[in-house]
Amino acid sequence: MTTRAGFTALIGEPNAGKSTLLNRMVGAKVSIVTHKVQTTRARIRGVAMAGESQIVFVDTPGLFQPRRRLDRAMVAAAWGGAADADIVVLLIEAHRGKTAGVETILSALSERAKGRRVALAINKIDRVEAPVLLKLTEDMNAAFTFAATFMISAEKGYGVEDLRDWLAAQMPEGPWLYPEDQIADLPMRMIAAEMTREKLTLRLHEELPYQLTVETERWEERQDGSARIDQIVYVARDGHKGILLGKGGETIKAVSKAAREELEDFMGRRVHLFLQVKVRPNWLDEAERYSEMGLDFRDGN
Questions:
Q1: 3-state secondary structure 96-130
Q2: Which has more confidence, 283 or 162?
């Protein structure tokens, strides 16, 4: 039996569907998916098995024009993920086409992904007619030499198996990097924090989701098989704390309930989740917060 294992980096603009594709490939929710752009901060790895191949996915933050330190660290993490991978998959949205952001990524790819094979995955194909799709495919392949092109719907699953099988065949020969039943190398503490952050992002609006972060402060395994999880939600301003708590604490209670239910479903056991909101005006400039998110503080310079 010849086993294969390697790394695949998913890159693209914010909201292109990278997290949805990763979760579809792995078959479990390891990366948060929301309707808001730019919700993936850390390089989350999900592990997918396809025959005798193990594909380790690096779900990078979306590539965009950075404005703040956090933005710059996220973009650096995205390109770092591409440079470290065996295969790079550029994901674009069918209905948005070859945007200015996609063109910027294409121009950077030849330098940033030197020596790496790059595949194109056109996502959300159910949103456009066939002639539009054909023209987009031609335009993209004229702009860059892709190793292969796939038309998919990460949300509905169309074409995802073909992409996974192709990736499996591209992985270098070698022993598996992770146990067969391990879906992600993120510690459960971080996965739990990401799930809570997703619920906050879905519940809140405008800029606030980008001004907060969640950390799992304490994890206690109980004798009855359940887990007690204490998390801190850091916000930048006092006003944010009030929004987060909601009238009579209803917002934070609803978030806590939704996050707890998803954690219980994910872990297959009972969870006691306790959330605390703290104001830290300068958390966006604290190296420790970046480490918690799997980012390098120095990349934000």
A1: CCCCHHHHHHHHHHHHHCCCCEEEEEEECHHHCCH
A2: 162
Same fold, 4-170 and 188-300: no
Rounded CA-CA distance 46/40 in Å is: 13
> pTM of the prediction?
0.61
| Residue recorded with tokens 């990097």 | 177
For the chain, the domains span 4-170, 188-300
Under a CB-based contact definition with an 8 Å cutoff, are residues 52 and 3 in contact? yes
The CATH class of the 188-300 domain is alpha beta
**pLDDT digit string (tens) for 26-80?**
876 555 444 444 444 445 567 888 889 988 887 565 544 545 555 555 555 555 5
Q: Which two tokens stand for residue 191?
A: 């996965």
Six token digits for residue 87: 């295969």
4-170: what CATH class? alpha beta
188-203 and 250-267 helices cross at what angle (nearest 10)?
A: 140
Sheet containing 227-235, strands listed edge to edge, beginning at the edge strand earlier in sequence: 212-221, 227-235, 271-279
Residue indicated by tokens 């470290």 = 84
Could you tell me the CA-to-CA distances from 93 to 122, 128, 133, 140, 154 in Å, in that order? 6, 10, 10, 12, 11
